[in-house]
Amino acid sequence: MTINETLSRYSDLSYGTAFVVYLLALILFCAQLASVRTESLKLTVPVGVSAGPVPPAFDARVPGRIVESPPRSMSDRLGNMGLSLVVVAFVFHLGALVLRGVATQRVPWGNMYEFVTLTCAAAVLAGLILLRRPDLRTLWVFALIPVLILMFVAGTVLYANAAPVVPALQSYWLPIHVSIVSIGSGVFLISGVSSMLFLLRLRFAHSSVDSKLGTWMRRLPEAHVLDRLAYKTTIFAFPLFGAGVVLGAIWAEAAWGRFWGWDPKETVSFIAWVIYAAYLHARATSGWRDTRAAWINIAGFVAMLFNLFIINMVVSGLHSYAGLN
């Protein structure tokens, strides 16, 4: 199989561009988060004084008279600019995957570098869908930080030159199994971050202790909003990840002659799936819906990260296809 080195270099360039633009978007979202409290203080109305209704587009008192809409706040403008940069970066991100696939003439998730790239793209896409509301855009700060960390690790430690996959991965199951698992993992990233922020929001929302962390946490959406976001994303990702595990077992039977062999990757994937099942059960059980369920969700997220890195890079097994030199 011939590798197109030119397209491979363009893929790497697109990947680096996406990383830089994501970083710029993170800076804008940090500025947005920092401006929330300042603007709320400016707009505070003294006790006993009515702020009045928002001016309508047309003044009802004078027919035909148009009243100008109030200007957008600095927080809104920063959020809109940050979201625009995320969209641009996502296009470059997808471009890196497409160019890598065309350069290698295969699906671009045959090693750890490509798998993490696809997982991060899935996480960003989930964010574009779930965090599109203006009141949720401050959460982009905490969604982009793990994405940038993963992309940095993938582009440095996990990077592999464009090349054909090993014979064991040359199967039609590769694009099906790996894509489903990576998409589920990317959505789980949003879920895990939401549960972490939910616990921090509860901890500092009504705390009398004044701290920088508490100040930042009080600028986030309400705790119940974060908890609902974590729950909705898990509901979506859980069946995807479960389907990925089942399809992986079918592939294992075709490749190795058995559906399940308790390989380290299979075992930890099953453990993570069970933890997320426990979270969904706890979330629907009275007495477990708040902090206890959130801790279970975080445990599932940790298991996912352990499965993604430690199992692939450290533990030897049948799934050791990291592509590392």
Short description:
This protein has helices at residues 5-42, 74-104, 112-130, 140-156, 173-205, 212-217, 223-256, 264-283, 291-313. With 325 residues, the chain is mainly α.
Task: Please outline the helices and strands.
Blueprint: H1 5-42, H2 74-104, H3 112-130, H4 140-156, H5 173-205, H6 212-217, H7 223-256, H8 264-283, H9 291-313
Helix pairs in contact: 1-2, 1-4, 2-3, 3-4, 3-5, 5-7, 5-9, 7-8, 8-9
Q: Your description of this structure?
A:
By secondary structure, the chain is mainly alpha-helical. The protein folds into two domains: 1-41 and 74-166; 171-319, no CATH class. The protein is built from nine helices and no strands. The chain has helices at residues 5-42, 74-104, 112-130, 140-156, 173-205, 212-217, 223-256, 264-283, 291-313. The two termini are 20 Å apart.
Tell me which oligomeric state these chains represent.
Answer: single chain
What structural category characterises the helix and strand content? Answer: mainly alpha
What is the global morphology?
Answer: flat
The fraction of residues in strands falls at under 5%
Q: List low-confidence stretches.
A: 38-57
Domain count, please report it.
Answer: 2
Number of strands: 0
What is the radius of gyration computed over CA atoms, rounded to a whole number of angstroms? 23 Å
Could you state the order of secondary-structure elements as H and E? HHHHHHHHH
Q: Given the structure, what is the number of helices?
A: 9
